[in-house]
Write a structure and sequence with these properties.
By secondary structure, this protein is an alpha/beta fold. It has one domain: P-loop containing nucleotide triphosphate hydrolases (Rossmann fold, 3-Layer(aba) Sandwich), CATH 3.40.50.300. The protein contains 10 helices and 12 strands. The chain has a 6-stranded mixed sheet, sandwiched between helices. Strands 2-1-4-5 form a 4-stranded antiparallel sheet, covered by helices on one side. It has a two-stranded antiparallel sheet with strand order 11-12. Helix 4 packs across helix 5 and helix 5 packs parallel to helix 6. The longest helix has 17 residues. The model has no long low-confidence stretch (mean pLDDT about 90).
Length: about 270
Amino acid sequence: MERKNFLKIENLKSGYSNNIVIRDLSFGVTKGSFTGIIGPNGSGKTTLFKTITGELSLIDGDIFLNDDCISNMPIKQKAQKIAIVTQNTDAVDIPVEDYVLMGRYPYRKKLQLFETEEDFKIAHKFMELTGVLKFKDKLMNELSGGEQQLVAIAKALTQEPALLLLDEPTSHLDISHQMQILNLIQKFNEEFDLTVLMIIHDLNLAAEFCDYLIMMDDGNIFAEGSPEEVLTYTNIEEVYKAVVITQENRITKKPSILLVSDKTLNQIK
């Protein structure tokens, strides 16, 4: 049976006052999928992300979450359903526990001033699962970049969202923290049936962790499908304007992308 789209983008038009970046873009994300958005700089990934999150206003088209139009959702309801993690976490001068508890704000009742026992229980649950409960009394600006990203993910999960949006969450991290964070997101995706939509630059990481990919180019969708369908050398060379070799990872059976320098190409010629 065909799976129903949980997040649905219909005829999206978006951009800035002097630059329309996306025109007539449509796609769907099924419930429980781990979808990656890839493409070169300037392809429209960030514009798309900002439009879904509401940072940019829709010029035309609709965005639906489980058949509900996001544009018509009250702010609190939207925050209960959608959580966002960006590539840069604010290293604010507040304790980690207080930062994570901010994820419970959408659930505050009228005139409620303080977090409930249930709020602390939920926050501590996800702090423990992300491995940051040990930092609860530390200040955010005392943590490393990787630790801050883990706290940001704990805060997002504390919202108990149905959809997790991530904008290059590992772009400034070393390979150890990249794997730690993406393994964690994959775990939550599978165990909690959490729908994940993530912008990611590293094509090898996208191939390894995402079960569906959307490749963008010039504000449009160039290709979409499984990593095996999207990450072909012809697609990559056409969109990224770079010579690559693609092969199957012998262990994971996922596509692996190898780069070829101009120097090597000249030597081959």
